[in-house]
Amino acid sequence: MAELGRIAAICLIGIVLTLLLEKNHPELAILLAIAVCAGMLFFYLGRMKIILSVLEQMAQAGGISSDLLEPLLKTVGIALISHTGAELCRDAKQGAVATVVETAGAFSAIIVSIPLLKAVWELLRGML
């Protein structure tokens, strides 16, 4: 809980500094916003090890190959990165670029999910 408070405080400080810089130095304001977002993403990437460990334990207990978890985790990562990237583009008043980032994220999620889709397809074929 204290960790979340620290993260919220860092983000709020980043927002205040970004708003102060926005009037005179908009390019620096967007760079600061990118830096804060990147810092938080890298911080949470380290925490992903905990989630990955729990998911692997659950997969082993259920007899599911850990190879099937990889596309799921990649898809979640793609969603987080593309959403954050698109919002940063919108903050920079680049709506068209934001849409491209979101579209690229959607295609990337589909591409990394192909092994999972194949496994589901084989499972369904085995039931017939």
What descriptors fit this protein?
single chain, mainly alpha, elongated
Structural class: mainly alpha
Mean pLDDT: 87
What fraction of residues sit in β-strands? under 5%
Q: Describe the main β-sheet briefly.
A: none
> Could you give the distance between the termini?
49 Å
Task: Describe the protein's architecture and organization.
The chain has 128 residues and is an all-alpha fold. The protein has helices at residues 2-24, 26-62, 69-91, 95-127. Helix content is 91%, strand content 0%. Helix 1 (2-24) runs antiparallel to helix 2 and helix 3 (69-91) runs antiparallel to helix 4 (95-127). The longest helix is centred in the middle third of the chain and has 37 residues, at 26-62. The chain is elongated and about 65 Å long. The mean pLDDT is 87.
Summarize the structure.
This protein has helices spanning 2-24, 26-62, 69-91, 95-127.
Secondary-structure map:
Elements lengths: L1 H23 L1 H37 L6 H23 L3 H33 L1
Helix pairs in contact: 1-2, 2-3, 3-4
